[in-house]
Automatic annotation (TrEMBL):
Record keyword Manganese present: no
Official protein name in the record: catechol O-methyltransferase
One Gene Ontology term of the molecular function aspect: catechol O-methyltransferase activity
Organism, scientific name: Rotaria sordida
Lineage per the UniProt record: Eukaryota, Metazoa, Spiralia, Gnathifera, Rotifera
One of the GO BP terms on file: catecholamine metabolic process
Enzyme Commission designation: 2.1.1.6
EC category: transferase
Family: Belongs to the class I-like SAM-binding methyltransferase superfamily. Cation-dependent O-methyltransferase family.
InterPro entries assigned to the protein according to its UniProt record, in alphabetical order: SAM-dependent_MTases_sf, SAM_O-MeTrfase
Entry keyword set: Catecholamine metabolism, Methyltransferase, Neurotransmitter degradation, S-adenosyl-L-methionine, Transferase
Length: 230
């Protein structure tokens, strides 16, 4: 069996489902969730992912790992690579004080607009800065544009072939410093072997793998890698 081909076919099928479900998810949230209730909106998105259409976000089970990481680090400066429809941004800010700003980058304009609508419906759009552009264009200007010395917390969940490139870019411009916590999703499926090899063998980091299942599925293994700069 060609495992690479199986993974590619699986990823392609999921991507097609994801593209078809974005607008439907927005309507579902606006029709079924309580406006201004962050947790209810999170739960509504999870219900949609389990019962309607598969969604490409961290999901409820791996989302608990993200919640715990936020609670442990208690970050004041936060960067997210990959907004998608705003689900993980909701999870992150739900764990933090109202005065904390999350900067999130999303290349796809339709996803960014849907995320903006959902975050506005949740009443938290003032706590999330969505940048609709490619990460390689945005990262070099983050420090200047937002007066940020470094990030306490970085969540990576965008294109898998960009994990390592963007991680190194953040390192090179000094936005990852001592105690920065980096949480990377989908490190098993679709997988980011180059990123894992780099961060696990880098003496500047301590890394821990947290096994789980892929979002809104019971049958496919996945996991999260949490790395902390020494």
């Amino acid at each position: 069996m060609n495992l690479t081909k199986v993974t590619e076919d699986f990823s392609s099928a999921l991507m097609e489902k994801m593209l078809a479900s974005r607008l439907d998810l927005k309507d579902y949230v606006l029709q079924n969730a309580r406006q201004g209730d962050i947790q209810n909106i999170i739960d509504t998105i999870d219900r949609y992912g389990w019962t309607k259409h598969w969604l490409m976000n961290i999901g409820d089970r791996k989302g608990e790992i993200l919640d715990q990481a936020i609670q442990i680090r208690k970050p004041k400066t936060i960067l997210e690579l990959g907004t998608f429809l705003g689900y993980s941004a909701l999870r992150i800010i739900s764990q933090l004080p109202d005065d904390i700003l999350l900067i999130t980058i999303e290349a796809d304009s339709q996803s960014a607009e849907i995320a903006r609508t959902i975050l506005e419906y949740a009443g938290v759009i003032n706590r999330v800065k969505i940048i609709n552009d490619y990460t390689e264009n945005v990262i070099p200007n983050l420090s200047k544009n937002f007066n940020i010395d470094s990030f306490d917390f970085i969540f990576i969940d965008h294109w898998k072939d960009a994990y390592l490139r963007d991680f190194k870019m953040l390192e090179n411009i000094g936005l990852i410093k001592s105690k920065t916590m980096i949480v990377a999703d989908n490190v098993i499926r679709p997988g980011v072997p180059d990123y894992l090899e780099y961060v696990r063998n880098n003496p500047n980091y301590t890394s821990t793998f947290y096994p789980g299942k892929i979002e809104y599925r019971e049958d496919l293994d996945d996991g999260i890698e949490i790395s902390i700069r020494k």
